[in-house]
Fold this sequence. Notes:
Blueprint lengths: L7 H13 L2 H7 L4 H15 L4 E4 L2 E4 L1 H25 L5 E7 L8 H11 L3 E7 L2 H10 L4 E6 L15 E6 L1 E5 L11 E5 L5 H12 L4 E6 L3 H9 L5 E3 L8 E4 L11 E8 L6 H19 L1
Parallel strand pairs: 3-4, 3-5, 8-9
Antiparallel strand pairs: 1-2, 5-12, 6-12, 7-10, 7-11
Helix pairs in contact: 1-2, 1-3, 1-4, 2-3, 4-9
Amino acid sequence: MVVTNLDLDALRSFVTGIDLGSFAKAAERLDRSPSALSLQLRKLEGQLGQPLTRKSGRGLALTEAGEALLGPARRLLALNDETLAIVRGPALAGRVRLGLPQDFAETWLPGLLGPFARQNPGVQVEVRVETNAALLAGLHAGRLDLVLAWESGAVPSEAWPGPAPLARLDLPMAWIGPRDGFVRALDATLPLVAFAAPCLFRQAGLRALDGAAIPWRVAFASPSLTGLWAAVAAGLGIALRVPHGLPPTLRALEPAEANLPALPQIGLALRAHDAQRGPALERLAGMLRAAMAPKLLA
């Protein structure tokens, strides 16, 4: 039996193009001509025997084969980069200041930073868990080097003044209620549990409720995600978030079961301060990119 060995350069071109939303941008990032990158992608599709992308308006969309390939491709590239770093040396040194939302601080982040610290003992990683506005302000001011931040809409935010994100996912929002469910009477005011404004989740929820002519009130507000989850579990109201890392007392509600409107997706972008980029940041960013899709979309 002849074993097919996937081309890692082609995989890197594929993953970079998906991360940037454009293979032309990927060619520029990877210092290749667009025609050379197209040849790599055709070779990869030939090895797999299936197309990986399709046109979707002005952008790109993954086929089923492309979706299946993306997560493993990220892991292969991360393992390749980690292997080279270990063999080539010298060990990295320096500091990376990482910021991220509360949603991920207690879920997959410990499993990511542990291996990174063992592989790169000379790199000092400082982590700050903040609100979205504080994360972006810290990155813009140079107080943070690398952040995971929420973005509204299905395209990268035009309001962000920096370069394109290193990676981006579109994740479903969900109404979050108690494990045993939540029933709203059609004529009742909906109690909400939310972060204080400004909050992209809060804005999206209120917009959806107003569009459906559903009356609402903020029954509980907290700067802590743990506080929100406790309030929802206590029956004070429902929250709006991504269905990731929920405590066992909660679950994502189907809109129809609670007479609630459908919700849009929200973007999660990995962004770096351009002036702070260096080998240590790039290695941590590579591990974050490899972790994002399989961990968040599982």
